[in-house]
Amino acid sequence: MKTTALTDLHISLGAKMVPFAGYNMPVQYAGVNAEHDTVRNAVGVFDVSHMGEFILKGEHALDLIQKVTSNDASRLVDGKIQYSCLPNGKNGIVDDLLVYRIDEKTYMLVVNASNIQKDWDWIAQFNEWDVEMKDISDRTSLLAVQGPHAAAALQSLTDIDLKSMEYYSFKKGTFAGINNVVVSATGYTGAGGFEIYADNAHARAVWDAVFAAGEPYGIKPIGLAARDTLRLEMGFCLYGNDIDDTTSPLEAGLGWITKLTKQFIGSDLLREQKQQGVTRKLVGFEMLERGIPRHDYPLVDEQGTVIGKVTSGTQSPSLKKAIGMGYVSIAYAKEGSEIYVLIRDQKVRARVVKMPF
Amino acid sequence: MNFPSELKYTSDHEWIRVEGGEAYVGITEFAQRELGDIVYIDINTVGDEVAEGQVFGTVEAVKTVSELFMPVSGTVLEVNSELDASPELVNTDPYGKGWMVKIAIADISSIGTLLSSEDYAAQVGA
Predict the structure, then answer these.
(1) ipTM, 2 dp
(2) Model confidence at B126: pLDDT above 90
(3) Assigned architecture for domain A279-353
């Protein structure tokens, strides 16, 4: 199993470790509810070094990105980031990703850990321009410092003015005395904060500096379990759960990152799907009766006929109620629709609601 | 990890405390740690005879769900109603206030086949 530069540290801190995407990762430290609350109300740190990073460089880097991604990367300027996805040409999704524009000819793509090889192979096959591609995943550490106090907690470590950074922008600079650190105003929690990219050699120094600076703000390490409850409360998709090779971005509510004004892999099929209208949609729902929806539980109507299935579900630590996401037939996709989750052969009432929850 | 020696254990991570012909049943410290923060306990078998190894309920945690298995055959007499309002008692006091059901044991000799605290500790590597 692969490790991050901080795996031993997590173990020494008493984290419960689990295999995730081939890496030995911390799933929990103090408990998922407490960690979740730390991020919503104060500031917490995730080691997400398992994520993949590719550098694309060259005259035609943008052409390659435009061809393989659904969003319009030509609208990026230096220092800006875009959420996007790699359509698979069959109305499915290879992966979702972030596109960073470093300069006109240099971009960084940040992809899911479980898809690093798959994405690399996928993108490489369309590289008709010989754009230089570099996979820096194995030498890059990534810490997500998330929560309302993140900017205040980190400001003493850098000259970059953190408070003034726009969401989905990044800066390269000195951080905790280390040069060439990328500080990115992004995250997967909806709580605000930053993601910090540094070489593995500096990972421990960055971690220690972040915890020292964050101490007055109650900073804590946070595991992947809370990362999942935090993202689900926001209605953010998780690849492999809510989106995959069989779900189209239009079905998944990712029309806003699917720019059909440009040509890209699978754009014709997606245009067709948009014209005809999707037959199912990813929705958020909350339970009206006691029960917690889990991945793959069937969604049914009042008669018990299957209308879809749950893709993600949990007890929401912030809302103190059970919430979920799932695909339903279009007739049930409207906000307020009553649906049922089949939990251990029992129909349990739920209602389609707007996301974020 | 704490596995009190006066209790008996199953390889499915339940404990049982025998008091005469009756017994209290819950899940072990190891089990609650594996599950994480517990949200509620779903038990609809009060009054039922449930055979050893059969499901008497489920425990729902934030991240996962797990079935609860009878350590020995018996009748479910009572569910710990305190867990309705305070399911976290299973996390904080798994062998005390976090008990789940009280049962009438069908055959008291069946207790002999359960694991001792040493055997259970060895099984979970604690």
Answers:
(1) 0.88
(2) no
(3) Beta Barrel (2.40)
